[in-house]
């Protein structure tokens, strides 16, 4: 049941579920699977009362720094190794209008920061930690498998998008290890990294 529910959460965006509906569907399924195990979202490191300025600001600054590194080093290196550049046609709406750009900034928080971090670094990684055999490498294995699933989740962006998502996920895994009890650091990191990328698209740098 847990495996099927998780698969449904990860596949929903790719099976035609509308963008503003699949987060509700996905988080609802995660909540149901947590309740089935007599857990709640606090078991994932997510609590509303830990939504303080410091985690969001520090995570956000790290996200902006990552976006700069991705633009100047990681992205060009991946493009050179893979022989292709990212397909950003899905984000043409960001270039076309100010309204599209502002919508993208909202989605950076709702989809990227909040939803994807709760699902991946929160739910998926926590469930892997519970299901993998007890071993000193279990934490690393759970983080690596989560990163791989996150990369494959971005398969629609092509080889470059998958590789870039994998690099992002490995860095996010390191941050998760640094602040295991507070997912708001990762939410701020992911949201601000996405906001920075959307801003670079809007300005014509991507």
At a glance:
Helix content is 73%, strand content 0%. The protein has 8 helices and no strands.
How are the elements arranged and paired?
Elements: H1 2-11, H2 22-36, H3 53-82, H4 92-96, H5 98-131, H6 138-153, H7 158-178, H8 184-202
Helix pairs in contact: 1-2, 2-5, 3-7, 3-8, 5-6, 5-8, 6-7
Explain the overall architecture:
- With 206 residues, this protein is mainly α.
- It contains eight helices and no strands.
- It is globular.
Provide key terms for this protein.
single chain; 206 residues; mainly alpha; 73% helix; globular
Report on the biggest sheet. Answer: none
End-to-end distance, in Å?
41 Å
Q: Helix and strand succession?
A: HHHHHHHH
Strand portion, in percent? Answer: under 5%
Number of helices: 8
Q: Indicate the percent of residues in helices.
A: over 70%
Number of strands: 0
Q: How would you describe the shape?
A: globular
What structural category do the secondary elements indicate?
Answer: mainly alpha
Q: What is the radius of gyration computed over CA atoms, rounded to a whole number of angstroms?
A: 17 Å
Average pLDDT reading: 91
Low-pLDDT parts are none
């Amino acid at each position: 049941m847990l495996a099927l529910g998780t698969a449904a959460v990860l596949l929903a965006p790719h099976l035609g579920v509308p963008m503003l509906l699949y987060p509700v569907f996905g988080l609802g399924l995660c909540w149901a699977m947590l309740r089935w195990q007599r857990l709640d979202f606090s078991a994932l490191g997510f609590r509303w009362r830990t939504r303080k300025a410091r985690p969001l600001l520090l995570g956000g600054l790290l996200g902006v720094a990552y976006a700069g590194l991705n633009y100047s080093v990681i992205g060009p290196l991946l493009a050179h190794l893979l022989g292709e550049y990212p397909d950003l046609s899905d984000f043409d709406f960001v270039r076309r209008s100010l309204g599209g750009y502002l919508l993208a900034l909202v989605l950076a928080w709702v989809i990227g920061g909040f939803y994807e971090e709760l699902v991946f670094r929160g739910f998926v990684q926590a469930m892997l930690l519970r299901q993998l055999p007890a071993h000193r490498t279990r934490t690393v294995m759970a983080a690596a498998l989560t990163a791989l699933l996150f990369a494959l989740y971005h398969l629609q962006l092509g080889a470059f998008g998958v590789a870039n998502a994998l690099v992002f996920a490995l860095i996010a895994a390191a941050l998760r290890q640094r602040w295991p009890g507070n997912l708001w650091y990762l939410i701020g990191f992911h949201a601000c990294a996405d906001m920075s990328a959307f801003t670079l698209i809007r300005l014509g740098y991507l």
